[in-house]
Amino acid sequence: GQLADWITRVLATLIDGVLLVPLYIVAIVLAQVATVLGLLVYLVIIAAALYFQYLTGSTGASPGKRLMGIKVVKEIDGQVIGGGMGIARSFIHIIDGIPCYLGYFWPLWDAKKQTFTDKIMSTVVLANQPKQSFGPELFK
User: Fold this and answer.
1) Nearest to 80 by CA among 102, 53, 98
2) Gap between the Cα atoms of 29 and 135, Å rounded
3) Rounded Cα–Cα distance for residues 53 and 140 (Å)
4) In the structure, how many helices (H) and strands (E) does the chain have?
5) 102 vs 15: CA distance, rounded Å
6) Containing H/E element for 98?
7) What pLDDT, in 10s, does the model give residues 83-125?
8) CB contact set of 23 (below 8 Å; sequence gap of 6+)
9) Taking CA atoms, which of 24, 36, 87, 130 is between 20 and 30 Å from 44?
10) Phi then psi for 24, rounded to 5 degrees?
11) Can you name the residues that pair with 105 across neighbouring β-strands?
12) b/e per residue, 98-125, with b = 16+ CB within 10 A?
């Protein structure tokens, strides 16, 4: 299939971040009441972010990716990478940031539009996938 362009990938990532903003606000407010409550909400934020990565692996798309109509798949066969590998992929993205964030920009000139993480994991991000509208199904 057609590969996703860099800006679409960036927008999907930003959407995932924006979806977590209400939790950040709750954490800040609760931290003013009791530090422990704020810390608990921060743990929920971490769990939600990991869940988004689990979804990326198990279904090919986080909520942001679904809204943008892109999907992460194995380069060799087009299958999803699995939930655990989706979470691992999020940690491997650290490599994209090490050399002055060069890995995040690599898709701009790479023939396969891959980040360093995509190359390591042999994944590609496909465009023109069914876009999903905002609602509860977006998070399943």
Assistant:
1) 53
2) 26
3) 12
4) 8, 2
5) 22
6) none
7) 999 999 999 999 999 989 999 999 999 999 999 999 999 999 9
8) 41, 44, 45, 48
9) 130
10) -60, -40
11) none
12) eeeeebbebbeeeeebbbbbbbebebbb
